[in-house]
Amino acid sequence: MPHILDPKLIDISVLRRFTSKIDICSDDECWLWKGGRDLQGYGVFYFMNRSVRSSRMAYLIKYGKIPLYNEIGQRIFVLHKCDNSSCVNPNHLYLGTNTDNMNDAYKRGQKRMTKEVIGKGIFSSAKFYAMDIRRIRKLKIIRSICPKRYKHSCEYVAKIFKTTSMTIWKIWNSNEYPCRDGYFV
Ligand SMILES: [Zn+2]
After folding, report:
1. Are residues 60 and 126 in the same domain?
2. Is 99 in the same domain as 143?
3. What is the distance in A from the centroid of ligand 1 to the CA of 89?
């Protein structure tokens, strides 16, 4: 059951706490969330004793309300135009269903592919598929969420994925790594 967020409860202290976790840039740049993130990379903010996606919170602050369902009963989500799940720039957010999200992501992916495949051989020589890169990144997130339990190093992850620790380091520290699927991930 999705929860309803009451914008009336966003007072100045909530606003201060929220904005202290954002890198506010120009209107068309991505505003990255500096606070905690979930496993999919979405920012997480605690509000009304619940964890709320920070993009959802940003949308609510800017536009005042978020409907739960559309006219045919499909759940409404706050989605990213920019494909950057940790971005909370309200100009990059829009409301849509899960299907809208998948269609839009597909279109953006196609556009990126045609733009970037041209003239670049780096994708064909790339070692990993996007899926592997996401798995490798997830290991870093898991480690940062629970450092007491998970202490795996670049070297350790490199062994699992049969690569060098430098490659793992690069994947962990970049948002744009070429993958065999033909785009940057
Ligand atoms: Zn953005």
Report:
1. no
2. no
3. 6
- Give this prediction's pTM: 0.58
Residues 34-82 pLDDT 10s: 999 998 889 999 988 889 999 999 999 999 888 888 888 889 999 998 8
CA–centroid distance, residue 3 to ligand 1 (Å)? 24
Cα of 161 from ligand 1 centre, angstroms: 31
Q: Which domain holds residue 161?
A: 121-185
Q: Does residue 17 form part of some domain?
A: yes
Crossing angle of helices 130-145 and 165-172, rounded to 10°: 80
Lookup result for tokens 């997480």:
44
Q: For residue range 86-108, list pLDDT tens digits in order.
A: 999 999 999 999 888 887 777 77
What is the tally of structural domains in the chain? 2
Distance 28 CA to ligand 1 centre (A): 8
- Ligand 1: distance of its center to the CA of 21 in Å? 15
Phi-psi region of 31 (alpha: psi -120 to 50; beta: other; left: phi over 0): beta
